[in-house]
């Protein structure tokens, strides 16, 4: 009797670089050069190889590619804040999404890492400089952060979101024009007849906190100390700072808050104190996050374009990975008038 046939379905053979070369009508070396950056490859050959890759279903073996290029095809997104801030503040998610999209176009993976404590930063420093990533995007970096000098000493390309205080000449960065945005807001509040304008700052160990306070002071010229309270970009800190301001300066008629999230907290404090917004106290925020349209009333605020900031950060990082010197990009902000002021 004949032996029964094996009818089990065998897995399809994975397409190889030789299959791509045959389909494209080019040499194996040409395909290899396309996969490793397209150097010394004509446009017609590049297009032929890309068509052949789609036709054959070829997928790049990233491990093998890394052995050749000495690159991991990965970039770290480092948030120097506690984990809960990632979920509370919508700005981080918008920035993370825009960076992920920009890197995906280059077939690069983004790794989210949190570094809120000294131990986190030490552990992360060892990981980042161990060849696991090609570069790092630094977000919400505070002055005195030991991670920056460590990464620089190890030669890892880095780009910061916001000016990296103390490292402006050594680290590439992309920042909104925080100072001008604050000036715009305070000038606008004054144009509506407000005269006792307070502010709730961000952390003064961050460039955003420093620059927005500076813009507030420049626009007023004669700001009183009792009109300045400090927050840390959380809703709770905005509520607490607004309560302090009402106690110290009950005659204030406007407040510029250095983030929309803190402004939402300030609105809670004003409502509890029986102050009408904007009739009694006008409120201006900063960011134009989704929070700004969900408060009651909706926030007048300063827009910083996070999608563009993320794309520029990725562009600078890829340039730095290719060996270019650090550069800085300052992006203009825009006043968005709504019902709160």
TrEMBL record:
SUPFAM superfamilies per UniProt: lambda repressor-like DNA-binding domains (SSF47413), Periplasmic binding protein-like I (SSF53822)
Domain of life (superkingdom): Bacteria
Boundaries of every HTH lacI-type domain copy: 15-69
PANTHER family referenced in this protein's UniProt entry, alphabetically: HTH-TYPE TRANSCRIPTIONAL REGULATOR GALS (PTHR30146:SF109), LACI-RELATED TRANSCRIPTIONAL REPRESSOR (PTHR30146)
Keyword Transcription in annotation: yes
Name used for this protein in its record: LacI family DNA-binding transcriptional regulator
Source organism: Dactylosporangium darangshiense
Gene3D superfamilies the record matches: 3.40.50.2300, lambda repressor-like DNA-binding domains
Keywords (A to Z) from UniProt: DNA-binding, Transcription, Transcription regulation
